[in-house]
Amino acid sequence: MVKESLPSWVHQDSDEGLVHVNVGGLKRSLCSSTLKKFPDTRLGKLLACDSEEDILQVCDDYDVQQKEFYFDRNPGLFPYVLHFYQTGKLHIMEELCVFSFSQEIEYWGINEFFLDSCCSYRYHDRKLESSRHRSWDDESDVSSIDTSVDEISDLNRDMQHFQEVRYGNIRKCLWLTLENPGYSIPSKLFSLISIGVVLTSIATMCINSIPEYQTFDSEGKLVEDPTMQALEVFCSCWFTFEVVTRLLLAPNRKKFFHHPLNIIDMVSVVPIYITLIFDLLVGSESELGDLGRLIQVFRLMRIFRVLKLARHSTGLRSLGATLRHSYREVGILLLYLAVGVSVFSGIAYTAEYEEDVGLDTIPACWWWGTVSMTTVGYGDVVPVTVAGKLAASGCILGGTLVVALPITIIFNKFSHFYRKQKALEASVRNNNRRKMRMS
After folding, report:
1. Alpha-carbon Rg for the chain in angstroms
2. Residues ≥6 apart with Cβ < 8 Å to 191
3. CATH classification of 149-311, choosing from 3.50.50.60, 1.10.287.40, 3.60.110.10, 1.20.120.350?
4. pLDDT in tens, 67-85
5. What DSSP assignment string belongs to 143-155?
6. Which one, out of 72, 243, 303, 340, has a CA that is 20 to 30 A from the CA of 130?
7. Which of 209, 263, 276 minimizes the C-alpha distance to 236?
């Protein structure tokens, strides 16, 4: 942590202590108050140095008389670093090599997330394009992304919270292991185990529904297979362990209960204990009537466990984010479909209501119009008159055009959120590698 009192080597001839640096011959002075805002960067770590040995761990040389720090780096790129300390944002010029710039900001301990939105897309796009022609490390997986200041600040606040609690580093490592499958090898193993448990749970539920695997007692009541029951108990214990562990390690409990993935986890666990309580206190489902059907609904809610795979799949998380941020486009799509269904179902009713083909009511025509306009075409109800067939043709063609209109917008948003999610995962992974190299 940065000290509140300034070290002795800081010039205090003004209200704010000055730190003098020499980067490849380029001399500049920075206020210590500015460096305190970024304590994890290389220049920010100078304020935590107590001795000359500590200083030489951060810079290449130190002039005791001038109290000047020397860094053997490219002086042409240092103005971009200075601009970052002044504004809190990184900018990159068009003529700069993205790989050279990436190595430079990594040396100074500055994260790529601080790239401003005006430069972020161009930077990552050029980086990805260059990686197709030359070998680079895993950071080349990161493509274009619009930097979100809110997400960066939230992540920094979460990391800062772990520094303020007891056993913060251990809790932070465990939390990232549970939350980010690409954080480390243990996190990947944990993710694989969790995926295996989810698939086992779904397979168990499917097998229990197959008549060949069902057994009944002398009274005709369904008896659960002991092996399947043991697997279900194990899966339930694992899901409970996951939810409780994440809750205990969460840096922000309030935000934990509002996160969609955590809500899915709780929805997949809570029905287990509700049905268990009913079975223990009330009795079997066959003796409860309507209440028994309610318990069956809770049992069927176990199918939501398949949504737990979204925690370990970048594509599923991106799909959820796309739907959440595409409500306008989805609303327009539903509006178009509703108008088309209403128009063509009215035409079909007028043309077919005297024929005995199942289109004798407006609601029945709505069903036919929905199936036709979405190009599903069950074939359970078909028009027989010429006017009805023309209406069906218009309905099908109109549905094809209407459904295709917002698809491009939704797909572009999906691509954006997918790249964004990959960049977030890569940033956490690269930060971990950087800290391991520094330690």
Report:
1. 31
2. 181, 312
3. 1.20.120.350
4. 888 998 888 888 888 888 8
5. ------HHHHHHH
6. 72
7. 276
Quote the strand ranges of 36-154, DSSP E. 61-63, 68-71
Distance, CA of 331 to chain centre: 23
For residue 52, give the 3-state DSSP assignment. Answer: helix
At 34, list the tokens: 């500015």
Task: Look up the pTM and report it.
Answer: 0.50
Identify residue 377 by its one-letter amino acid code. Answer: G
Q: Report CA-CA distances (Å) from 293 to 229, 236, 273, 278, 285.
A: 21, 22, 16, 12, 7
- Cα–Cα nearest to 96, from 111, 82, 76, 72: 76
Topology, domain 317-427? Helix Hairpins (1.10.287)
User: Within 13 Å and on the Cβ side, how many CA atoms surround 349?
Assistant: 15
Task: Using alpha carbons, select from 60, 70, 84 the residue that is nearest to residue 20.
Answer: 70
165 or 432: whose pLDDT is higher? 165
Strands 68-71 and 18-23: parallel
Burial 417-430 (b: 16+ CB within 10 A, else e): bbbbbbbbbbbbbb
Report d(CA 345, CA 398) in Å as an integer: 13
Give strand ranges (E) for 145-254.
215-216, 222-223
Q: Which of 44, 55, 29, 143 is nearest to 88 (CA)?
A: 44
pLDDT in tens, 104-149: 888 888 888 788 877 777 777 777 665 544 443 333 333 333 434 4
Identify the three-state secondary structure at position 185.
helix
Q: What is the pLDDT of residue 439?
A: 56
Sign of CA dihedral 361, 366, 372, 378: negative
Query: Terminal CA-to-CA distance of the chain, rounded, Å?
Result: 16
Give CA separation, 359 vs 106, 232, 350, 390, in Å. Answer: 68, 47, 9, 15
| Residue 356 φ/ψ region, left for φ over 0, alpha for ψ in the -120 to 50 degree band, beta for the rest | beta
Cβ atoms of 57 and 69 closer than 8 Å: no
The length of the chain, given as a count of residues:
439
Going by the DSSP 8-state scheme, the letter that residue 77 receives in this structure is T
- Paired strand residues for 21: 28, 69
How do the domains of the chain map onto residue ranges?
A: 18-143, 149-311, 317-427
Nearest to 270 by CA among 242, 236, 224, 308: 236
CATH number of this structure's domain 18-143, picked from the four choices 1.10.3720.10, 3.30.710.10, 3.40.30.120, 3.40.50.720: 3.30.710.10
